[in-house]
Amino acid sequence: MMSQTKVLLEHLNSGSLKNDEEYCWYYFCAISLLAYRDPDKCEKYWDRLGYKSYFYDQSGAQCYVLENDEHIVVAFRGTEAKELSDIKADMSFIKTWHRGPGKVHRGFMVEVWKLADHLTPHIFQTEKQVYVTGHSLGGAMATLYGTLCKPKNIPILYTYGSPRVGDNEYYRKFNLPHTRVKNNNDAVTALPPALIGFRHVGNIVYINHYGNIRYLTAWQRIKDMFRGHIAAIKSLQFFDGIRDHSIDKYCFALHKNWEEKK
Length: 262
Known about the structure:
This protein is of the alpha/beta class. The chain is 43% helix and 20% strand.
């Protein structure tokens, strides 16, 4: 698996963020994968991509700021089992006010506030294009930070396996460019439940059971959901929703999609 990951990351600097949508899906997914690593483990990748990097860790909330002459990337780290603050953030379904319309998930918002002041000197009123990304909890934080940060140009969001972050009013007023990628039966994307008033935002990119990007009707997606569950049971893998949440599965599927589109 490590050799596959190495090959995947070595392709990072071979496309364009300006006019290649499929490359952007893969690129920011790989950035989100690297965000799980400590600075000494991924510094060589930031250097290869031409980024000056900054790492922030505040009471368990973590992110990278990556900057070059043209743009800035804010990459939030997702849930880590060893971080109690991550677990508490994921499990809190209480809504709270924020600096925008509607109410949002309190636990996710608290994690963003831990980092916001440290990010302001990089982001506020910058003329560079700002991209915000993350996987899992990192995706939720990226979504909320996108509505909070104030660069001169509208920030662009790419999130992977993100839970829902806001209520119906937040959903109705959300107007940022946001690509939200979901992999088949990823269980985290079903949280917090829609029944208690949470909604997804952004434009969904769906990865089907076979690892391909498909634009499906609701009925086709239900069939694909069962296809994934049945295949997992046949393989004696009974936690399909957890397996599909893996950032590695997202990366490999999006890398394959981009390679096929080139």
